[in-house]
Amino acid sequence: MDPATPRLETQQTPEGLTLRALGAWTAAGLTNPPAWEPLAAQLHTLAARPAGASAPASVRWDLQQIDRLDYLGAQVLWSSWGQDWPAQLESDPEQRAMLETVARLTCSPLPPRRADWTEPLVVLGGRLLALLDHAKGLVRLIGQLLLDIIRLARRPRQGPWRDLSGHLYHMGATALPITALVGFLIGVVLAYLISQQLRQFGADAFIVNILGISLIRELGPVLAAILIAGRTGSAITAQIGVMRVTEELDAMRVMGIARGFRLVMPRALALAVVLPLISVWTTIAALLGGMLAANVSMGVTSSFFINALPAAVGVANLTLATAKSVVFGLLIALVGCHYGLRVKPNTESLGQGTTASVVTSITVVILVDALFAVLFKNVGI
Question: Does the pLDDT at position 20 exceed 80?
Fold first, then answer.
């Protein structure tokens, strides 16, 4: 055995049991599992007792043979004594001073708090109040947006057109590759899954109807909105949140620049214009993927697919999809701005706000899409 290994030697004397500590009682020695495990078992057997209990008078502790002792070793000894001095203790002055410091700074653990029956009600009430606070802030943001649009209509020369054009490019043009790729793959997957079922009934031609209705009316707008919510909604929250951290929002208030007119309105209008176009782009890519997969798996030619699509899907479906996309764009921009303006001037709040913005935006998109599906269930079908 290594002489530096912390250990206890027991010796039975006429005066009683003597416990002699040997080795290095330091953090390096005590955190070594092969050395700590037998020592912990020995301490538990020989010296463990409830905190505050008196030390047996027949047990004598000898610490003078310890090679090195640090505060972790002193804490181990103090805890093994039940946070009370043993009746018989032999130690050096330095060891005694270290043990007295540990004894003075050691606190007994608090008793476990018993949960009150009202605690779940308090938590639920707090979350409901937080939800109402977010709803109130979002309604205020919508009202301010309407006032800013009226101001823009009255004085178009004062509008932030340069900001609007920049947002149109960053939110729209740069999102085309990823939305086209995801839409194309979704169309391929849907066509392969649908073909497996339609082939059993010999209804191969109806793949055009199913793909057309599902992609143009529902999946295209929703898929584009979810991608934009994760991509652009988080960027909006991060941009405005960083302005809060760097105190740019405070500077705008001091200079008399309206935050809603220069920050919220350009992003909301840009996303309301861009998202319908991205929705159509995503839908076209998904239809191309579905047409290719239908041709490969079922032999449905591209010419038949293109000629049968207008008869299978009415124009009302495209109109409804466009209207939904406008609403989705406005909501994603408003949610992103809402969480961005609520960011506190620290990086932790910025990360939490960005995450909450993405989750809320996707949830709002799905809820609003379900509402559109219920309200317009007889339109275009």
Answer: yes
